[in-house]
Amino acid sequence: MKKLALVSAISLAATGQAMAAAYKLPENSINSTALSAAYVANAHGADASYYNPAAMVYNAPGASLEADLTLAHLTSIDLTSGALAPDSTKVENIPIPSFHYVSPAMGDFRFGLSAVVPVGLSKRWNGQAAGFAQEFTLETLELNPTIGYRINDRFSVGGGVRIIYTDGVVKSDNGAGTSRDLSGDSFDYGYNLALHFKATDQLSLAATYRSKIDLTVKGDANLWVGGALNYIGPASVEIPAPAALNLAAAYDINDRTTVEFVYERTYWSSYKQLDFNYAASIHPFIDGVFGTPGIKDWSDTNTYRIGLTHQLNPKWTLMAGFAYDETPVPKKYVNYELPDSDAKIFSFGAKYKYSDKMTIGASLLYDQKDKLSIPAGVNTEAQNTLLGGATFENAKAYLFTVGMEYKF
């Protein structure tokens, strides 16, 4: 269950800096990484099963599958001012697999299946901040079976069931004999919906919605006070994988070039607090340090994405993207497990048509977080070590995705 404590960020292997605001990971294919996830109204191929199941009904005849591997490289976050400065987090290198499949057309229907990492977090501090986040790791894996229905040549609908497995670990050690070691897992469920409309031969409009899923992690906890083991037993925590609405428009500038704009609204306001529950009473001091609910009161956020796809020739397709991503974390509630800030995201990639059946590709994404400066007296509801102010900086993340799509 402790794993969910670090849920201040979420994703199967994913990252403390996260690839998106807080702990979302929207890039789960070659196309989505290359386009900074500006990939909804122009979704095509096997990964349309995840990004827009309503659009997959317009795929080329036959079935298709895509297998990808992403390496997430997270630089250290530096705590350059504040009561616990100087300190820094450890560099993380995390492999993230994904898989997508779309069936052949069955009348006006098509079926899909995706296995992705939708959210996650890993944060490990080297110095005094380890007293709050020695390790916060949250891993998730989502299975998303989908269905699309073609109403006519211009309008289609789709949807699916979301099944998320969560596994996590939380460790804290203040160096004075007070520490915790938690782990747990869960299966939780939700849904997604999609609409796709070809307004003209050049313009496609789309909307997708992913429901909120409460990750109900349950597991075991060991708590120490004064160096003595005080509690061994069950523990639980609940954290939301927030709902998200995407509105998108893709326009064919010509027969080889498409530009897409995506507006994403993520409903982080569902994250009110982080509350660990135990099966029995624990030492009052431990309860004050590790048992008191942590106030979050996060805010809903906007993300603005733009992607450009250009078919250079019959063999090569080039892509590039940019996104501006708002953080949901108010400075009043920033904590060491996720010192998040607004981000600018840059990406590019290419695909090569090896044969009529096989396409291979690679893409690279760079996520630059803004410096996070917390003035003195602002962080009144989180850790009191931040009450005097603090600065977190140099948070960066790189995603490198390689993969293959096969049609049959």
Roughly how many Å is the radius of gyration?
Answer: 22 Å
User: What is the β-strand count?
Assistant: 24
Kindly name the structural category.
mainly beta
Q: How would a textbook summarize the main sheet?
A: 14 strands, antiparallel, barrel
Return the string of H and E elements. Answer: HHHEEEEEEHEEEEEEEEEEHEEEEEEEE
Proportion of beta-strand residues: over 45%
In CATH terms, what is the architecture?
Beta Barrel
Regions with pLDDT < 50 over 5+ consecutive residues? 1-19
**What would you call the quaternary organization?**
single chain
Helix content: under 10%
Strand order of the largest sheet: 1-4-5-7-8-9-10-13-14-18-19-20-21-24
Please give the domain count. Answer: 1
Shape: elongated
The CATH homologous superfamily is called Outer membrane protein transport protein (OMPP1/FadL/TodX)
Looking at the structure, the CATH topology is: Porin
- Please identify the top-level CATH class: Mainly Beta
What structural keywords apply?
408 residues, mainly beta, Porin, 14-stranded antiparallel beta barrel, four-stranded antiparallel β-sheet, 6% helix, disordered N terminus
